[in-house]
Design goal:
There is one protein chain. With 243 residues, this protein is α/β, with parallel strands linked by helices. It has a single domain, classed as Rossmann fold, CATH 3.40.50. 45% of the residues lie in helices and 14% in strands. A seven-stranded parallel sheet has the order 3-2-1-4-5-6-7, with helices on both faces. Helix 1 links the parallel strand 1 and strand 2. The longest helix has 28 residues. The protein is globular, with a radius of gyration of 17 Å. The model has no long low-confidence stretch (mean pLDDT 97). The structure holds nicotinamide-adenine-dinucleotide. Nicotinamide-adenine-dinucleotide (NAD) binds next to helix 1 and helix 6.
Length: 243
C-alpha cells in the first residue's frame, strides 16, 4: 500500500485502533495529523488535541489538519465511546455523550472535510462503525444506535459525494483487543486478559481482532486499491455474527 504524498487526519489517535492506523498510514508514506483528547507523545506529523464534543473544535479540525499538512486526502473518523446497558438503564448523560462523540462529531468532520477534498479533486473518508451498528447487539442500545447512524451516514455520503471523487466507506469490526474492550471488562470486575481469551473462543477464527487487523482494512479503504468502493460497510468479524 503506497500512500506517499498523501495527507490524513485520524481521530481517536491515542486509542487502540487509532494508534495502529496512524502507524500504518505513516508506514505507507502518508503524513498524519492526530486528534484526541491528549496527543502528547504520539508519533505523527501534526498534533491537534481537543474534545470532539466541542462544536468549534470538531467543525474546524479538517481545515486545521489541511493547513498543518498542506492538504487533506484522507479522514479517519475513529474516535468513539461505548456506554453499556439497555435503554431502561441508560441516562440522559449516556445518551448525550454517545450521540456527541459517535454521531455528531463524525458528521461535523465529514461536513467540513468534503469541500476541502472536493476542491483538491477527491479524497477518502473511512468511518469506524461496528458490526453492532449493522445488527443489534445485546445490552448496548446507545452504542448500537449511534454506530447504526454512522453506518447509515457512510452509505448516504458514499452515494452523495462519489461524483466529487470522494469515497466514503466504513469498517465494521466485531470485538477488537483495545483499551475500549479492556476497560469495559475491568469496570465489570473481570480480569481483561482472561475475559479477552474467553471471548476469543466465541470467534470462529479463535481470537478477537488485533488493532492492526482493523487498521489494515482502514488502509485498504483509504487507498486506491479500494477505488471503486463508495458507501461500503466492510465487516471485520473473524466469522463471528452479532448475537
Ligand atoms: N474495540 C472494539 O471491540 C471495537 C469494536 C467495533 C468498533 N470499535 C470502534 O473503533 C473505534 C476505536 O475504538 P478503540 O477500540 O480503539 O477504543 P479506544 O478507547 O482505545 O480509543 C478511542 C479513542 O477515542 C478518544 N475519544 C473518546 N472520546 C473523545 C472525545 N470526546 N474527543 C476526542 N477524542 C475522544 C479516546 O480518548 C480514545 O483515545 C471506536 O469508534 C469504536 O467504537 C471498537
Amino acid at each position: 500500500m503506497d500512500l506517499t504524498g498523501k495527507t490524513a487526519l485520524v481521530t481517536g489517535a491515542a486509542g487502540g485502533i487509532g494508534l495502529a492506523t496512524t502507524r500504518m498510514l505513516r508506514g505507507a508514506g502518508a503524513a498524519v495529523a492526530v486528534a484526541d483528547l491528549d496527543t502528547t507523545g504520539l508519533e505523527a506529523d501534526a498534533w491537534l488535541s481537543g474534545n470532539l464534543t466541542d462544536v468549534g473544535y470538531a467543525n474546524g479540525l479538517p481545515q486545521r489538519a489541511a493547513e498543518a499538512l498542506g492538504g487533506l486526502d484522507i479522514l479517519v473518523n475513529n474516535a468513539g465511546i461505548m456506554r453499556r446497558g439497555a435503554v431502561t438503564e441508560s441516562t440522559d448523560a449516556d445518551f448525550d455523550i454517545s450521540v456527541a462523540v459517535n454521531m455528531q462529531a463524525p458528521f461535523r468532520l465529514c461536513r467540513a472535510a468534503v469541500p476541502i477534498m472536493a476542491e483538491a479533486g477527491g479524497g477518502a473518508i473511512v468511518n469506524i462503525a461496528s458490526c453492532w451498528g449493522v445488527r443489534p447487539g445485546p445490552d448496548h442500545a446507545l452504542y448500537c444506535m449511534t454506530k447504526a447512524a454512522i453506518a447509515s451516514l457512510t452509505q448516504c455520503m458514499g452515494r452523495d459525494h462519489a461524483h466529487q471523487g470522494i469515497r466514503v466507506n466504513a469498517v465494521c469490526p466485531n470485538e477488537v483487543d483495545t483499551p475500549m474492550l479492556r476497560t469495559g471488562f475491568e469496570r465489570r470486575g473481570f480480569d481483561p486478559d482472561t475475559a479477552i481469551a474467553e471471548l476469543g473462543e466465541t470467534v470462529p477464527l479463535g481470537r478477537v481482532a488485533t488493532p492492526d487487523e482493523i487498521a489494515e482494512v482502514v488502509l485498504f479503504l483509504a487507498s486506491d486499491h479500494a477505488r471503486y468502493l463508495c458507501g461500503s460497510l466492510v465487516e471485520a468479524n473473524g466469522g463471528k455474527p452479532v448475537g
